[in-house]
Amino acid sequence: MKISILLPYKENYTINKAGAVSLFVRDTFGLSAYKKNTYIFGSTNSKKNLSKNYINLNVRKNILKSSNLEYLKSFINNKEFKYTKILEIHNRPSYIRFIKDHYKEKILLYFHNDPLSMNGSKTLIEREFLIENVDMLIFNSVWSKNRFFIGFKNVNIFNKKISVCYQSTNKVQIDFKKKKKIISFVGKLNLAKGYDIFGNSIIKVLDKHPDWKAYVFGDEKREQHFFKHKNLRILGFKNNKFILNFLKQNSISVICSRWEEPFGRSSLEAASRGCATIISNKGGLPETSKSAIILNKLNSDNLYIKIEELIQNPKKLIRYQKLNYNNFYLTNEFVSSKLDTIRKYFLNINNFIIQRKPLKILHVTNFNYRFDGRLQYNTGRRINNGFVRLGHNVLTVSDRDLVNQYKNITDPNGSKKLNDKLIKIYKNFKPDLLVLGHADAISNDTLFFFKNNGVKICQWFLDPLSKFGPDYQKNKKRIIIKHKIIDATFLTTNPSSLDFNINNSYFMPNPCDESFEFLENYNNDCKYDLFFAMSHGVHRGQLKKGKSDNREIFINELVKKNNDIIFDLYGLNNIQPIWGNDFINKISNSSMGLNLSRGEPVKYYSSDRIAQLMGNGLLTFIDEKTYYGDFFTSDEIVTYKNLDDLSSKLNKFKKDKKKRSIIAKNGKEKYFKYFNSTIVAEYIINKTLDNKIKNKLIWQK
User: Fold this and answer.
1) At what angle do helices 265-272 and 314-326 cross, to 10 degrees?
2) What's the CA gap between 593 and 556, in Å, rounded?
């Protein structure tokens, strides 16, 4: 679902020289839901670009060839343009004919200027060509839109192809008490911008009011206008960040253009910073602010009168300042969201949810067919059950089983055959959503194939990711290799606790499932007090000679300290781990369970053992440094500080059967209410598809 943005040739997408088009792209792109899949193309000599994802196209000048044509050729042939689903062209209608010959997907054309003044849209024939060959025309004002359709007999038939998206800026907190007696002019210092009108009036204002100052920002090499006064400062061109910061202390802003401005960014920014704004009634300027003072007579005398009225009446001045600020709505967030709505329509991201229920989900993880039912209680099957209970059409692929089956001399890992098979499955099944669980053998090329065919992709990951945990570097590499391609990643560790970033990552609890966790140990008189089971790897199935971890040391110390506790332990001290139906039979004999994961405790991380313990009604103990106290109260789970604290609480609850049963029952009910596989599956779908979640659960931060 790649989006490419093409700037005009030589557009300065740079920090120091950015114009209105560049600022519009920068501000809206940064807040877009699709920014990680969006690339901005331009051609500039500066290396200080406004944002990431910018690709500079080097165009060699040749007096015998059109620079614009060479620019377009360079763009079309750029490898990052490949697989683009939406192409957004800014302010160059003349590019469309060439683009249409080389690109067959969706095209959005943005107009930032008067369409009748631009090559490619001056004539009626040219504009008719555009409306027929472009999927959406986006104008920066109603005035610009109306100009485009001059000469058309019936505009209404094109409504679905037309949108108005104004320019925007951010809105910051303004302290009106800190406003100074300053009047500003921002723009080219020429007749078109009305700089002569401003200069002639401002000299009279400053002569009469020596406690006021005026600041001018801009330049003009083609015209010379000289205005001098001790309180007039002409500062030349300043970047947008400087101007926005200055406007916070500015009181009155003047935009007195003679020419028909398609929109007018200066008045927009002045309104956003709470300036009393005086504008001419030209082009799209009246659309920039709902509370601007309009110059119906555009001359220096009338401008002087309007400024004088504000200075002489401080209450009127502050009223217009606050009206502009309070009525300002063209924020970057607002406009970016509107653009994303247009993109979403063309990408068909959510349309299929309305058109086709259920979803088609391709779920690729290890379903462990090779082990004859020994690993029947795995998380992949739990999540899969949730998808099915939600009514979706789910096709499962057990990747580890397939690569094991496909291994041969030419494909020693079996991964090539697996990836080929997934492509064939796509062509037959046409999934809406691809869900990966530890699917390391799937290549990024295969993921790009799915993504470029409109499939949303997510991954879930259960292994520890803390730098103080086991297999840290290996697990980190496994998770980050795909995170820039896919739409969402779900971890059983709190993402904010990691020392590296993962795009669009969310915490996901280990889900319980009603078909797996069906015991109610809190109702039984159990033979053992405390259950604990570990292994040296699920695929191995048995103890590995010479291998151990810190959990064994902890458990052995716990046993030594508690002679009165009857332990039922597996996976250590030469006692083999337990699996399948044997696991359920063994866990049913204990009233309490210890949830102890490998490595140092990290926020929210737990192995899937916690779902088996709490889900089967055992009173569950967990290290407080996992912060599971954020989810469960002391009436639902028992947290401990250290080995001595755990020992004390074990003995306490061994004796207090009533309290033990109540907490265990509460824990099971809470776990099934908020952590069940259906809820987790629904959360995975909604976050991946960017659907709104109406009611957040206790773990959905």
Assistant:
1) 100
2) 16
Is the separation of the CB atoms in 275 and 251 below 8 Å?
yes
Q: Phi and psi at residue 229, in whole multiples of 5°?
A: -165, 150
Q: Give dist(CA 397, CA 365) in Å, integer.
A: 7
Cα atoms found within 13 Å of the Cα of residue 280, Cβ hemisphere only: 22
Nearest to 169 by CA among 330, 14, 283, 2: 330
Sort 135 into a burial class: Cβ within 10 Å, 0-12 / 13-18 / 19+: middle
Task: Please name the residue that has the structure tokens 């202390």.
Answer: 249
* Residues near 617 by beta carbon (within 8 Å), at least 6 away in sequence: 519, 520, 521, 522, 523, 664, 665, 667, 668
Q: How many CB atoms lie within 10 A of CB 519?
A: 17
The pairing of strands 276-280 and 252-255 is parallel
Instruction: Please determine, for residue 700, whether its predicted confidence score (pLDDT) is greater than 80.
Output: no
- What's the whole-model pTM score? 0.54
628-687 tens-digit pLDDT: 999 999 999 999 999 999 999 999 999 999 999 999 999 999 999 999 999 999 999 999
Domains and CATH numbers, the chain: 2-164 (3.40.50.2000), 176-328 (3.40.50.2000), 352-507 (3.40.50), 521-675 (3.40.50.2000)
Q: Bridge-partner residues for 268, per DSSP?
A: none
Asked if 288 and 267 count as a contact pair (C-beta separation under 8 A), the reply is: yes
CB 329 within 8 A of CB 281: no
* pLDDT tens, position by position, 551-568: 999 999 999 999 999 999
**142-174 pLDDT tens trace:** 999 999 999 998 787 788 889 999 999 999 999
CA–CA separation, 192 and 195 (whole Å): 8
Distance between CA atoms of 262 and 267, rounded to whole angstroms?
12
- Check: CB of residue 306 under 8 Å from CB of residue 295: yes
Laid out side by side, the sheet with 360-365 consists of 393-398, 360-365, 433-437, 456-461, 488-491, 505-507
